[in-house]
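User: Second chain of the day. Same drill as before.
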Amino acid sequence: MGKLYDLIQAHIDAQPYEVSERQVARAIGVTQTTLSNWREPKRLIAKEHLLAISRVTGVPYLRVLDALLDDIGYLTENSPAPSERRGSA
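Assistant: Same format as last time:
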């Protein structure tokens, strides 16, 4: 699995009650098939879905975005850390 789906799975595992992938997909606003495809994403995902993943899982948006960018190969060993990419402003 990719890092993005690891965040989603950690959310599912952390619930005190059983949560299905279908329920999480519905909360994010996508189909279960789409959510399953994010196990190993090949391209960018719509910003609205990344924001929904952040909201549903409680993971900061930049961490969600970094996980996706890493999964699809946009980050390299030499990529700056998230705090460095946002600049000092």
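The radius of gyration is 13 Å.

User: Great, on to the next one.
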